[in-house]
Amino acid sequence: MNTHTIKNFTSEKGKAMLSYEGYIYTLERKNDVKLIFRCQNRDYKGRCHTNPTMDVIVSAPTEHCHASKPDLVPILEFKNKIKSRAAETVESSSTILHSAMRSFPLDVAGQLPQSETLLSTWRELRTSRR
Predict the structure, then answer these.
(1) Range of the domain at 17
(2) Is the residue at 52 inside a domain?
(3) What are phi and psi of 31, to 5 degrees?
(4) Which of 8, 24, 52, 119 qualifies as a cystine partner to 40, CB 3.0-4.6 A?
(5) Are residues 84 and 122 in the same domain?
C-alpha cells in the first residue's frame, strides 16, 4: 500500500497537476481508468499514473534524473488558494494576498513572485470573469 501523499493543484492554464514524493507532475492525457501525468521538468520524460479521482498512484513514477523540488508545493498551494478566493469572493486582491501571506511558510517566501505580479494576475482573472 502506498503511503506517500498526493497533493492536487491546478496550473496557471487550468490543467490538473499533482505533487508526489517532492516532484511536480502535469496532466498529459486521460482515459476512463487512469490519468497520466508527466514530470514538470520537460527535459525529463518521467510519468506517473493515478486513478480518475487523483488520490491513488496506480503506476509508480519512473525514476527521475533530477532532484525533487518540494519547495514548489507551498507556492502552488498558495497560488491556488489565492486564485480560488479571487474567483469566489468580492474581497480586494490585496486583502486576499495579505490574508494568504499570514499562513505562508517563511522559509520559501523568497521564491514567490513579487506582490505586484501576483496582484495583477488576480485582477486579470476577475476582469475576465465579469
Answers:
(1) 7-59
(2) yes
(3) -140, -170
(4) 24
(5) yes
